Amino acid sequence: MTQGSYKQFCPVAMAAELLCTRWTVVLLRELLAGSTRFNELRRGLPRMSPALLSQRLKDLETAGILSREASPGEPGVFEYRLTAAGRELKPLVEAFGIWGQRWVDTELSLQHLDVSLLMWDMRRNLDPTPMPKRRAVIHFQYPQLAPAQRSWWLLVEPGLGVDLCSVDPGFDVDLYVSTDLRTMTAIWMGLDTVRNALRDERMMLTGDRKLAADMQAWLGLSPFARERKLAS
Considering the entire predicted model, what is its pTM? Predict the structure, then answer.
């Protein structure tokens, strides 16, 4: 899996040869978060090339960490599912995230902004419980970004889950959210709040008042947002 070997019998070294190649840990993060198809994995890893993603998936399959299975009823479609060995890596990946949230400097974290990754993470962590029991459409606008990255829609359908669109889905919008990418990322990471962003005029909410009032509740923050920063 790696180009070289530590040539050590130590289990730490042997595991590192399998897991410490570029993109492998974040690929495991996506698999543990529930992504099973190639295009789903790409949406969570937008900066990883398709060729490298294919190679890493093959490497993990060879190592017995995941299996590649034909999707029932969909000829030619395959799904990638973690094996028992892969699922056992969950606490390790979570520990990476907890350590990063605690000890990586906030400014360093916020230098690596990625609207595609942010919106994909928001889509899968959104909590529909405090939302109306009907279709809700939230249009996120990032005016400072290039036109192709500026607008995103979250569609919440009771019983059907949450969908993310980068082109107008054609439904009436219930809530418009206008902000900058840094502010939205900081909120999602637990480093800022909707209330503070509104107070400082870094965010504007237009539309359904109940949806706007409950945004902090339904937003569904990063799984690591509750971890307190320890880095100075």
Answer: 0.85
Q: How far apart are CA 65 and CA 57, in angstroms?
A: 9
Task: Tell me the domain boundaries of the chain.
Answer: 11-88, 112-218
The amino acid that residue 177 corresponds to is: V
Report the distance separating Cα 99 and Cα 110, nearest Å.
16
In this structure, the number of other CB atoms found within 10 A of the CB of residue 116 comes to 17
- The model's pLDDT over 139-148, given as tens digits with 9 standing for 90+, comes to 999 999 999 9
62 burial type by CB count under 10 A (0-12 exposed, 13-18 middle, 19+ buried) = exposed
CATH no. for 112-218: 3.30.1050.10
Task: Evaluate if residue 2 carries a pLDDT over 50.
Answer: no
CB 122 within 8 A of CB 188: yes
In the CATH hierarchy, which fold is given to the domain comprising 11-88?
Answer: Arc Repressor Mutant, subunit A (1.10.10)
Let me know if the fold of 11-88 is the same as that of 112-218: no
Radius of gyration of the chain (CA): 19
CA–CA separation, 97 vs 30, rounded Å? 13
Instruction: Please state whether beta strands 136-141 and 175-179 pair in parallel, antiparallel, or not at all (unpaired).
Output: parallel
Q: Where are the alpha helices (DSSP H) in the chain?
A: 11-19, 24-32, 38-44, 50-62, 84-87, 90-103, 106-109, 115-125, 147-150, 181-188, 194-199, 209-213, 215-218
How many residues in total does the chain contain?
Answer: 232
179: tokens are 């902000």
